[in-house]
Amino acid sequence: MKIAIINGPNLNLVGVREPHIYGTTSLTDYLESLRGKYPNVEFSFFQSNHEGDLIDEIQIQGFECEGIVLNAGALTHYSYALADAVRAVETPVIEVHISDVNAREPFRRISVIKDACVAVIAGFGLKSYDMAVEWFIENAN
Ligand code: DQA
Question: Strands of 93-97's sheet, edge to edge?
């Protein structure tokens, strides 16, 4: 099974950025540990601070793999272009967030991509990614 994990703006700084919110583990180290934890899954990891690059990656992975785990960062809250990219592809997408976006500033409670996704997982720290991977494993046809 192939799963793509796609991360948007500022997620390259997880581990350093606002550690009281996002923790002190680097996202790269954490995602690498998933390869050991799920040896039967072929993972691809992608991060970009640029909306168009994220759309390009969704368009590629969206016809290549069985699941996409997408943390679009702040783009979640306003990028209709990303939402359209999610709608445009065949692969199901799960929206994830490290923090509990519903318990933070009001603008974070809005997701313009959630309706295009099969599920939203937020607030479990980096474990949110694991939970999305498990969902795909359990729901694979
Ligand atoms: C985030 C939440 C977003 O509101 C924020 O802009 C991020 C990270 C999260 O993973 O908790 O960059 O997506």
Answer: 42-47, 2-7, 67-71, 93-97, 119-122
What is the predicted pLDDT for the residue at 140? 81
Residues with catalytic function: 22, 97
User: Does the reported pTM lie above 0.90?
Assistant: yes
Instruction: Tell me, in angstroms, the distance from the centre of ligand 1 to residue 90's CA.
Output: 25
User: For the domain 2-138, what is the CATH code?
Assistant: 3.40.50.9100
Nearest-atom index, ligand 1, CA of 100: 11
Question: Any idea where the domains of the chain sit in the sequence?
Answer: 2-138
- Span from the CA of 120 to the centroid of ligand 1 (angstroms): 13
What value does the mean pLDDT take over residues 111-134? Answer: 98
C-alpha 50 to ligand 1 mean position (Å): 15
What distance in Å separates the CA atoms of residue 108 and residue 32, rounded to the nearest whole number? Answer: 28
Q: What is the pLDDT of residues 69-103, one digit of tens each?
A: 999 999 999 999 999 999 999 999 999 999 999 99
How far is Cα 45 from Cα 22, in angstroms, rounded to an integer? 19
Quote the pLDDT of residue 141. 63
For the CA of 108, the closest atom of ligand 1 is: 4
